[in-house]
Amino acid sequence: xxxxxxxxxxxxxxxxxxxxxxxxxxxxxxxxxxxxxxxxxxxxxxxxxxxxxxxxxxxxxxxxxxxxxxxxxxxxxxxxxxxxxxxxxxxxxxxxxxxxxxxxxxxxxxxxxxxxxxxxxxxxxxxxxxxxxxxxxxxxxxxx
Length: 144
Description:
Blueprint: E1 2-6, H1 12-21, H2 30-38, E2 46-50, E3 53-62, E4 68-76, H3 85-98, E5 105-110, H4 115-123, E6 127-132, E7 137-143
Parallel strand pairs: 4-5
Antiparallel strand pairs: 1-2, 2-3, 3-4, 5-7, 6-7
């Protein structure tokens, strides 16, 4: 049985492991980012649990002026992909932020060659804004 809940500090090691398995662990100090996701930004971040094991996560945070929310990362255990976990995480996240009328949009950055993520976000109504050459990521947005 799958359950989606807010990230908690107790899942930090599991989240780091999932990030490493899914090629989302980008820089050496990324563990601090996951710490923030499990503490300060847990209101906007979720974990997918299968039984008692985390099998995916979504980390997001409001941008500095809080006009929109950055969906910073989504990752699913490679063995659990294509089972709807990513979609369930996005749906739970969108349901949560829809309760707050202060946000106009959700944005995320996707690697240009990540066709699976592009398809997932397109399926959920996100569209490409532009390629950010500085970070070599394509910026997607969904207006709320």
